[in-house]
Predict the 3D structure of the following.
Amino acid sequence: MTSPRQEGYRTPTIEDYDEHEKRRNQLENDLSQSQLQMPGGVLSLFSETRDHLNLTKSLEKMVWKERLRHFTWTFFTMTMATGGIANVIHAVPFRFSGIDTIGTIFFLFNLLLFLINVVLISFRFHVFPATFGASLSHPTESLFVPAAVVSFGTVLINISQYGLNNVGPWLNTAVLVLFWIDVALAIISSTGIYLVIWSTQTFTIHQMTPIWIFPAYPMLIIGPHAAILSATLDQPRALEIIIGGFTVQGVGFLVSLTIYAAFIYRLMTQKLPMESTRPGMFVSVGPSAFTAGALINLAINTEKALPADFMGNGPLVSMILRVVASWAALWLWGLAIWFFIVSVGAHWTCVRDGDLNFAMTWYSFIFPNTALVTATFAVGIAFESNTIQIIGCVMTCILIAAWFFVFGMMIRAIIHKQILWPQKGEDKDEGGFRAADLKGNKVRSYSEGFIPTPITSPV
């Protein structure tokens, strides 16, 4: 048996865990059928295994304090998606009376959800301190740590959309400072999580999913954030925001592009991911979609942000930037649509066979696609196409309906103990590992800071 950092050790995956669960269930059935035929001495060899299998029965009356032990970073995908809906509503080009009110409701509700998430995950780390370190090194949960930063950035974007010019001049200065704080957090969280993963985990190509892109997401919303701010700030500040936003957005997209290549190679050699991980395929829509919308909107804002003598002729430079950005964005927008079609098609068998159980990754159906909708609006405006803008409006209606569906399924999953439950969330023990270490009838797992010993062969 090997352990982390030893030769031959491989980071466990969800597929490994599912396979081990099948083996464990088969073992329980075999024991039940052959118990009367086995000598007592042989049965004693399986006593520890059967004790472990019976532990789940004692969890039926778990109190909420224990359930919150499993409140993982993935709950911030909920606030990402909700804030994304508010962003889409603000971007709708065809305005009507009440649309700003609808967007404001989503914004305020998202702000409430964000505060609740912060309180509950702080509670988890305070009451169960070991879970903080475990969440940063867990092969799945660690990938979602940047979701908190993305949620924070999404809240800032919504504040810039619905708060500026409605609160007071002080907010203009506040959002500018918060923007640069968001930039710093995005860079630190993205590079930090990747460094932790590269230092502690070992993956093979067949384990690859687009969730590997997720640590780059904090940088991918900096461009859209900069586009919104630069449209309202004065010239010197607007230009600084545009340059900073364009730079960070480019870094985020290029990092994502390298992971795109690994994902395509994985699909060509290993088929589609497991059904339980396929919602994460929609994460591949986000990088090119966010970048397409950011390019167009940042280029539009250069018209008033550039000084008259910028690079010799500010207005001419702005015109050139708009032309180049608009046509370059078409490629990125098309790439996002292509990944969207592939992701939708990959879920056909899941829907047909009913093999898709709820997980917080279902919010991947929403947030990356909010970027696709806003990019569609940006392309429609850039090329003065009402048809494209109308298509974006239809997509907006579908996306809002999907948000209500996913949010309702989340409430249902909490009630039916599909999430916030041991071995049901992204903090579950993964791979060919024992799910518990039985010491004093207490289960210690990844979620409690325990790294179990891997099983190399069936029990």
